[in-house]
Amino acid sequence: MIKSFCLGLLALCFTGLFSSCNEEGSLGLDLLPNVDGIGVFKLDTFTVNTYTVDEDSVESQFPSRKVFGMINDPVFGKAASATYFQTILTTENVDLGQDVSIDSLVLSLAIEGYMGDTTQPVTIHVYELDEALHLDSSYYTNRRLAYKPTPLATVSYMPRPASYVDISEPLLAGGDTIISYRPIIRIPLSNTLAQRIVAASGTADLANTTNFLNFFKGFYITAEVPNGQTGVMLNITPRSALNGMYLYYRNDTTRRRFDMVARGDIAYFNTFSFDYTGTELATAIGNTSPLIEENFVQAGTGVKVRVDMPYLQKLVETFDVAINKAEIEFTVISSSVTDPFPPPTRMFLLPADSLNVNLPNAMNDLLERYYDGEYRDGKYKFVITRYIQEQLKRTTPDYGLRLIPLNTVSSVNRAVIASSNNVNPLYRPKLILTFTKLK
After folding, report:
1. For residue range 162-218, what is the model confidence (pLDDT) as tens digits?
2. Cβ atoms 105, 307 nearer than 8 A
3. What is the model's pTM?
């Protein structure tokens, strides 16, 4: 996949910097366009080599949103996500009273968004965890926790990410009222679990949150769709007051509700799995052949793009420079941008170490307002001036950059990027340097 290229804008020639050059030589500043007459130069024909690599598992605790579901993507294959989370008490020493009769036990989840097809149902599986979650532990996207084999619920759910839901809720003074909630998923849970909770009323199990988490460790939620169906990934906001397990019951003829909420100081994380079998992506991973014209990026720790600039040091071989601006751009293959698979709204371009681990702290431009990375006009552009200057000074090892999407651990958003081998030279990644010669 690695292949250098030249846009033919300049007649400079030295080893490796331009694909059309065969002889080693100096930069030849006299041939550079002097943009303002005071020794500032602009160059946009550097070699940029790209290819697709696997993303490693990364820490996934406390993602910006919980996500579960399954997507069958004709380009990227099958992606699946699951989520683990706790519920906690809102008060201590819970006693539901005498003569309790159960109406229902419901899991409520507030929908923040989705990716995929909402015209067909998805089968949701809800399980009780058999392994504790911990607030102070790290959880990775490939981590799996033990859960009880019998599901608390298996439901066919028709996604309604924009529809409000009317629910009959009990009033403190007695009676009921209809409340219209923002888009939520309401899943009826096992009556066996409801009976366990009622039996724990007034005991140490409901005395405080620590005891309750020993009694009920939390949820594991996954979903599936048949082969041939596009499927959907559902995004759940972790901050909503509508997230939780709610027991509706009666005592003394009064209808009541007992809340076990999934918000606040709870542990939660997402996991992902991918199957690229039979896709073009499968042949591109790790493939450096010059025949590969497309690179692939997918969140959820799927795949990312490695970006190398192997001949950057040639710029300072015979003189020093001060980098005024370093911009690099990547073009999205327009045919890959189809509903329901939009590209990520933003990407990040980060250095990596020798083990392919992303290093956000090593990109000093990351927190600058100019850094960018937003998706505009079919491109992702980044200003990485400080990074390039550091590389020219050889202050850090160079293991290349990695192009990764926003929401790495809370979505499976994806993009197809033109590689350095793309048949159209205008689509290939481009590094544009504006610099001043120092000596």
Report:
1. 899 999 999 887 889 999 999 999 999 999 999 999 999 999 999 999 999 999 999
2. no
3. 0.87
Residue spans per domain, the chain: 29-57+277-437, 66-266
Distances (CA, A) of 247 to 94, 170, 244, 257: 13, 11, 10, 6
pLDDT digit string (tens) for 145-166? 999 999 999 999 999 998 999 9
Q: Which of 124, 182, 178, 174 is nearest to 153 (CA)?
A: 124
Q: Scanning the structure block, which residue is given the tokens 């809720």?
A: 169
Give the largest CA-CA distance in the chain.
93
Torsion sign (Cα): 145, 146, 149, 152: negative
Pick the residue with more confidence: 22 or 159? Answer: 159
Q: How would CATH label the architecture of 29-57+277-437? A: Sandwich (2.60)
Measured CA to CA, the distance from residue 49 to residue 41 in angstroms comes to 23
Tokens for 384, please give them: 């990485």
Q: How far apart are CA 417 and CA 297, in angstroms?
A: 8
Token pair for 15: 């080893």
Helix (H, G, I), strand (E, B) or coil at 209: helix
State the Cα–Cα distance between residues 29 and 187, nearest whole angstrom. 69
Percent of the chain with pLDDT over 90: 82
Rounded alpha-carbon distances, angstroms, from residue 344 to 45, 70, 239, 297, 422: 27, 18, 23, 9, 21
Three-state DSSP at 219 gives strand
Q: How many CB atoms lie within 10 A of CB 257?
A: 14
Confidence of residue 424 (pLDDT cuts 50, 70, 90): very high
